[in-house]
Each structure stands twice: as C-alpha cells, then as structure tokens.
Amino acid sequence: MYNTVLETGDHGAFNSWGRDRFWHPNRRIMDSATMANIALTKLDILGTTILRENRFRCDHGWDIDLDDGSSYYDIYDNVCLNGGLKLREGFFRRVHHNLMINNTFHPHVWFANSNDVFTNNVVTTDYKPIQVKVWGKEVDHNFFPDKASPEAAQKRGTDAHSIVLDLQFVNFAKGDYRLKPSSKPKYMTYRDFPINNFGTRVAAYKNWQPLFLCLRYCYPQQPARAT
Asked: pLDDT digit string (tens) for 118-137?
C-alpha cells in the first residue's frame, strides 16, 4: 500500500479510529471507567483483528496507525517502509515480528492496564513515546539499530533483553527483507519475513509488480506538464 497521506497528516496507510463505547473525550473518565471494569473494552469487539503480511508506506503519518482506543489487534509480519507504527490508547494489542524501516514504534497515551505487547520487532530508530507511564504487558526482545536506542528504552523500563542488530538484507532494492546469514543474531531468535506471501495472489499481476515498484522509487517524479 503506497501513495498514502500525501497532502495531510495525522493519519496512516492503515488507520483505525476506535471510539468504541468505552472511549470518552475526557481521559480521566475513560481511565477510571476501564480500570474499574475492563470488560467495557469488549462491548463492541467481535474478535481480534489480524493485520499481517503487508507492505505499507505512509508519507506524512504512520504506516500503521491504531488511533483513539483501537483495541484487540494482532499485528505481525508487516514491513513498514516510512512511517513506523503507532498505538494510541486502546487495549490488548499484540505487535510482533514486524520490520520498521526508516522509523520506529510510537506508543501514545497508554492505559495503565492496556495489556499491550510489543515483541520481536525490528525498529531503525529509538521509540517515540508520548505520555506513556505504564508500558503494557510486555515490551521486550526487540531489535535496535544502535547501542543508544536500547539503552534509552531500558531507562524507561522496557527491553531488558533486546539487542542491537546489523541489518544486512538479502536484496533490499527488490524487497527481499530476509537477513543475510552474517547479519542474523547468534544469541536471539530472528524470524525472517515470508516475502513470498506479500501483495497480490494473482500470478499475472506478480509479473509487473516489481517493475512498478522500481519505477516508483528508483526514479524521481517528474513535474506536471503545463496544460
């Protein structure tokens, strides 16, 4: 999913806008209500929403944007190419085995009992939290690009077992985000992304898709012609 949020902001290539019945514009009311009865968060939930095996690029927002209390998500095996991933408010989100190129994890104003999980993800800059005092159920076993990033996370009370990872992809230009053997960590399990499952399932479309991506990102856009 490309060419998203080109002229605005505060949005995403994938955007969910929660506002379920537990949500309230007054944060204090919402905090006290969900702390007293977390079952309120399930009133409008039919089941866990699964978001997997996608490539997202958002120009002026987040590649994955779970906004305003979006809850009960399982997000894995996604490649975020520009905007990273945002979790605002909400409950019971599990984010694992995602790759965030050129960006990172954006947790915003979490609930004390969110039960959120963020594990086994690759980020390429330090986290960008906003008003997070309690870091969910688990934020750990992630991969960072440099030594300073996990140290900053550990000072906030997360990522005690996360490590620095030297990202050497098999073929980045063609979207092969598997790691070369020399780049895989020796003391921590790393799961490669199932790149063959991305995108269209139609065989005819697969033949031109890589060419389209190359034309889109290898060559600069030309100015519009005068009419």
From this structure: 999 999 999 999 999 999 99
